[in-house]
Amino acid sequence: MNAPATAPASSMPAITYNFAYLDEQTKRMIRRAILKAIAIPGYQVPFASREMPMPYGWGTGGVQVTAAILGADDVLKVIDQGSDDTTNAVAIRTFFETTAGVATTTRTQDATIIQTRHRIPEAELKAGQTIVFQVPIPEPLRFLEPRETETRRLHGLADYGLMQVKLYEDIARHGHIATTYAYPVKVEDRYVMDPSPIPKFDNPKMNDSPALQLFGAGREKRIYAIPPYTQVVSLDFEDHPFKVQAFKEPCALCGATGVYLDEVILDDKGGRMFVCSDTDHCATRQAEGHTGTMSAPYAAQPGPLTPSPSPARGEGGNPTGIPSPLVGEGGSRPSRETGEGFATGESGEAR
Amino acid sequence: MTTDTPLLTAQGLAKYYGHRLGCRDVDLTLHEGEVLAIVGESGSGKSTLLGLLSTELAPTAGRVAYRMRDGETRDLASLSEAERRLLLRTDWGFVRQHAEQGLRMAVSAGGNVGERLMAVGWRHYGDIRSEATDWLSRVEIAAERIDDDPRTFSGGMRQRLQIARNLVTRPRLVFMDEPTSGLDVSVQARLLDLIRQLVEEFGLAVVIVTHDLAVARLLSHRIMVMKSGRVIEQGLTDQVLDDPREPYTQLLVSSVLAA
C-alpha cells in the first residue's frame, strides 16, 4: 500500500506492515465478531480467522483479537502460563512492538491489554483493562459430542446435561471432580463456556470481573467474550461443590500464599520448589521485600551458569546450594528456563 | 390412571425416500400399558414406521399425536425442538438394536443411566448414583459394575443397560427396535423376561419392532404385520398368529421353525 519510495535502490525495500499487522478490513471483521460476542456473553461467534505468521496452537486467535482491538496508546502485556518471559510471550510481545509500535510492559497494573495463555494474573484486574485469552478448543462439549451441528443445537437449547455427565465421570473415577484446567463455566446463567486451559484456580477471577474478557480461537475460528461484571459460575454437583486448588506451602521466592504455584524440579533426587506462576506478581513482591524459604541471601554470588540476576526472577539462580551445573541441567522447567536461565547463560558464554 | 384417550395415535402416515416407498397409509392407536408389535420381513418398512412414530423421521404425509403428561394431546409436528427433546428423554425411551447406538460407550454404566437425570436437572451426585445403582440392580447388572465402561459388557448386559438408561425417568412409552436380535437364545429369553416384567411393573406402553414372531407372541398384546411398506393385517397377537388371514402372514407364521 505505502511502498517506501525513498528506499535506496541498492537495498531491499524496508518491510512495512499495516498497524498491528492485519489489514483494516480484517480488523473490522474481527471487531464485529467481538461486538457480537460481547452482546451474547459466552456464545461462540464464528469469524474468518486469518493465517498468522505463527503456527496454530501458538495463539493465532488471541493475536488476531489483540490486533483488532489494539490502539496506538495501548500498553500491552503478554503472558504465557503466567510468565512474561517465555518464548510464546516474548515472541508475541515483540510481534506487536514491531508491527504496531505500542508500548509494552510486564506490570499487570500498567497494561491496558493483557494477552494471556493459560493464566489470569494474580493482581486484580481493573475496569478499563482487557484480557485476551488464547483458546485452543473453544467448544466445551467437544470431547463429549464430536458433531459440531449437534453441539450447536445443544448450546441453542441450553441442553447441558452432557457436561454434567463429564463431571459425574470424574467423580466416579477419581472420587472428586478431577478436571483441573479448562473447567467448564456457565455464563450469565445461559451459555456453558470453556474458559480456555486456565487452571480452575483462576475460574473465580472471571466472575463479576471489572475487566473485559475476550477469547480467540484461531484454528477453530471462534471468538467469545465475557463483558465486565458478568456472572460466571463453575459447574459442579450439590454434594461435590467447585473447589480451587490449594497449596500447602507459600511461594519459595516471595512467600506469597493464596496464589497459583508452579512446581520446579531442582535435581534428580526429589528436590523441588514451588514458585509463583505469575512472574510479575512474584517480582513485585520480592521488590517489596517479601522473601520465601529459598530466597537467596543478599550476599550470595551468582553461579557461573546464571551470570546475572534477571529482573523478573530475582536471585533465584541457585537456591539449593547444589553445585550450579546441576541447577542448569536439573532445573527442567522448559518454558521458563528457556526464556531465562539458559538464554542468559548462553549469551553470557558467547560474549 | 386409566383413560380412554389413546396415548399415541397416527393417521395416514407415509414416508417416501425420494421415489422409493418407506411406508404408507399407516393408522394406529396405542393406549397406556399396551404393547404393540410390528412384524414383517427386512425392508417391509417397520423401522421407517418406528422412526416416524418417534419423531426421528419427518413424515411425507400424515400426523402423529401424543397425549402429554399434562393430559393434553398434541400433534408431534407442532412441538418445538426443545419440547421434543424433553419428551424424548423423559416420557419416552428408545431401545435400539445395536446397544452402541443407544449408549455412550466411553461413559461408565452409572453415567449412562444418570445422563437423563442430569439432563432434566439433577445436580446431586449421591442421588444420581443411588438411583443408577437401583436401576442397575433392576436390570440384573451387579452394582460393582457401575463404574465400568459398556465396552467391557457382554451383548446382553449392554441391552439391559440400555433399558435401564431409558427407564430411569419413568417414561410412559418405549420404542424398541429389534432389542433381542443378535443375542443368543438363552440371553434373549432372559431379556424378554425382564422386559415383560418391567412393562408390567411400570405399565409401559411399548411399540416393538421385530422380525421374530416368538418375541411378538411373548411380549405383545396386539400385532401389526407389514409388507412392502403397508400394514396388511393387524389384531390381537394370539388371534393373528393362531389364525392368520393374509397369505403373507400365513407364510410368516408357517416359516417359524418349531423348537
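qc> Chain B has a mean pLDDT of 92.
qc> done
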